User: Fold this.
Amino acid sequence: MEHRWGMSIDLDRCTGCEACVVACHAENNLPVSSPDQAEKGRTAHWIRVDRYYEGEFPDVKVKYRPVLCQQCDNAPCEPVCPTYATYHNTEGLNVQVYNRCVGTFYCANNCPYTVRFFNWFAPEWPEPLQLQHNPDVAIRPAGVMEKCTFCVQRIQRGKRDAAVENRPLADGEIQPACVQSCPAEAMAFGDLNDPESKVSKLAGSGRATPLLGELGTKPKVFYLERAK
Amino acid sequence: MAASAGLLPYAKIREDLFRPLSKGSPRYWITICAAMSVIILGMAAWGIQVRDGMGVTGLNRPVFWGFYIVDFVFWIGISHAGTLISAILRLTDAAWRKPVTRAAEAITVFCLMIGGMFPIIHLGRSWLFYWLIPYPNPRLLWPNFRSPLLWDLVAILTYVTGSVIYLYLPLIPDMAQLAEHNVPWRRKLYRILSLGWTGSDREWHALERAMKLMACIILAVAISVHTVVSWDFAMSIAPMWHSTIFGPYFVVGAIFSGIAALLLVMGTLRRALGLELYLTKHHFNNLSKLLLLMSLLWFYFTFAEYQTVWYGNEPSEMAVFASKIRGPYAPFFWTMVFCNFVVPFILLGIRKLRTINTAMIASVCVLIGMWLERYLIVAPTLGNPRMNAASGVYVPTWIEFAITAATFAGMLVLYLLFAKLFPMIAVWEFKAHPVEEN
Assistant:
């Protein structure tokens, strides 16, 4: 059966430590923005932690929400790309083909989650970070759009390893960098087509809600929260 | 008044309108040189952008579209001057149209040439723009026809082709006349371009038929083009872009700014080429009334659009709404209302104030206002996305200003060169020809 990859993020567990952000940078060869570029809003974090404040000082509560590409089944970014640089693959991933991208920005404008990132310049890393590039991930040139891939290189690797050893893929065997590095274990990743997988159970638990669900984008990232 | 030019002897009309082609003044060449230097600056800016990346602009996340898209919509909007005005006037056989149509048709062609560059300039990898064209290639890749950008490409290419034909057809008899007595290089040029026109009965009939047909086709194309441009925005789910009235709203705005551009060009031509006998107060009066009408229509559409958003009171739409009405974009918003509605309403609505000069002032205001209108559609929506933790501000850099300025200079140069090569008013239309005698 085809896989259908999904993720759950437990907002009651998230501490906002941003370990996922750092892990994603290291895994996916994300460039490091200079301070003045960051000030202009040019940072690239495929996963970011949004902070929301509730209540009036001094009774302030902070809520954290890690936001990454929601891998929508009904993705607004896909139909607007004139060159098919972004499309839906058979495993439900919303894939970005860097080589096909001409940089119309349309996908990023139509993404309600604002999780698409543009290469404003050729990517740069301060010394010695350029020495730790992940050989499994392409370095994107200036002028193309990019975004979270659900660590597609790890998905491919997991499937290949299982095939070589002639066994089915186990639940939890594949972990994107953010899930792997979450110290609070707030994130889970797995196959939504497998009803026994951890992520399937969490997604059907009643604590799960999609982000901006009213738009009908059918995200495959589920946010878990105590029902009020 | 309209008949004044018609009452002049044909020889004088011919002499008046062909004179500017052969007489060059230092002022003309100084203007060309000044405009060319602005163009060179803009090209240098674009060169820097291509070399270094889009980071040299003020674009950021989430404001991925800025000046270039604003300029694109603005120029495509102005291009509606020619086709719509000239086609409507031709089809309704308005007697006063004769001295107006060519100036309008030329605006269309040049604005489309300029506006059509912006989708390429705004690309992250502009050297790959041809990937949007469905050409046969070894990897069997096809562009995505579901994308409004593909519709844009098709619509604009159709419009350019149509409007070039529409400008060219009524030029043929004039060029045949020009080929008769002229300096050798011009004689050669006009002879080639006039396609062997001899002025026979059959040719006049064919021209008349072709013009009628093209007027009908170009009307439909013009309206569809700006509707498609609006769909670049309306087909997305961004707040205050996803609106059903964007199609007609954009078409109205386009005709509005097109008439303003036409009035401005006519006023300038009148003074620069001494065409006071041809472009009379009567023409300006008629076009001013049309501009006033479009101003009212524009106001109606804007009011309807903002009123529904306000009453809908949807949070993500209200964030955009508030940033326009009283937020950081408020100065631009109220300037837009002043330029697009208050100024034309007072200057053109009160009969005593409606003169050639006030029509020119109102036109400049409308052009500024309509540019701001497009800016207010593009930037505030992108700056206030649904995830408000991701909102941002757009501050353009000198690169975007230089490229924008260069396109205005480019328009000036194209128009000046055109005015040196072709008569700005169709001379043959003043001569009774067999078709009209029938």
